[in-house]
Amino acid sequence: MRVDHVGYAAGPEGLQATARRLAAQLGVRTVDGGPHPRSGTRNVVLPLSDGSYVEVAEVLDHPVADKALFGRAVRARSEAGGGWFVWALTVDDLDAHARRLGETAEPGVRRRPDGVELRWRQIGAPGLREDPQLPLLIEWSGPATQHPSAIALAGGTRLAGLTIAGRPERVRSWLGLPPEFAVERLDFTFVDEDGAGDPGLRAVTFQTARGPVTV
Which of 113, 159, 184, 200 lies at a 20 to 30 A Cα distance from 89? Predict the structure, then answer.
């Protein structure tokens, strides 16, 4: 498994302006991602090296956004001023994780402006509903060339670290990892959620051509 993406809810300036602001900070391009019909949202993608990306999302004025967990999570964070609201890992055998966790893998789909339809399955209800320190687990369909990171520049901006309000043992248990598991090339910092507000993703550090940048 690896970090697939980190999600940022658009602020009061709107989706495009939020995405351009982040892209300027990170030295990357923006790519219109298109709508998520199942969640009542749409996104702009900031492709990163090493197979990951930033998803900047905003909620649409559509009834489904009030029913879908993802739509409600985006709306809540946007109404609070915008910012990080979710992180996601890609896994090779989502069904095995679903059986272990007693969760149901939900389908996802969006059509890019160029007409390419992206499909995936994910587990993430607890992380979106009551325990946002937990990542979404994602399994993509289709060729790797369709992944949102595929157009990133080789050797360009990459993820360097995540700061999460929560408990590392809770995240390891959710992922089925042993207590001694360690991550390479990516720094995880956990802060006490009791002293940092609600649990969840608090900050992301990127390694850019200008050096490290923390958002």
Answer: 113
161 forms beta bridges with 187, 205
Question: What's the rounded Cα separation, in Å, for the pair 168 and 105?
Answer: 24
pLDDT of residue 189: 94
Fold of 2-153: 2,3-Dihydroxybiphenyl 1,2-Dioxygenase; domain 1 (3.10.180)
DSSP bridge pairs for 190: 164
Decide: pTM greater than 0.90.
yes
Taking 80 as the threshold, does the pLDDT of residue 69 lie above it? yes
Tokens matching residue 8:
């940022």
Confidence band for 164, pLDDT divided at 50, 70 and 90: very high
What 8-state DSSP symbol labels residue 64?
G
